[in-house]
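Running this now, will post back.
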Amino acid sequence: MANRVQGVLRTHRQVKVILVDDRTHALKTCATRHGTYAVVPVILAWERHNGALFYSEGAKLQVSLQRADDETVLRTVTFEVRKSQPNVLVSPHDLLPKEFDDAVLRLLPSA
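Update: finished.
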């Protein structure tokens, strides 16, 4: 999900994206690298039920915009999706529609 969020940000806004591998120190790392804000994605729930011909998949995701220096949460969006498809192997990214990208963009102040 983090890759999808950073892809949306880079595609739609002129922002400096700092990727952080270790979530436990993400805000501190962001502040150390002179980042002002951190976009923090969290998977609240993800489930997949396989059937013979179809599978159903659902996710509940939360994305927050936080100040990197003091961890103040400025905005939070929660996104939920459910869908069923033929039972073929697909990437989890296929579950996230364009509306997810729109939800991520709602976090940011108007350009």
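The mean pLDDT is 81. More later if anyone needs it.
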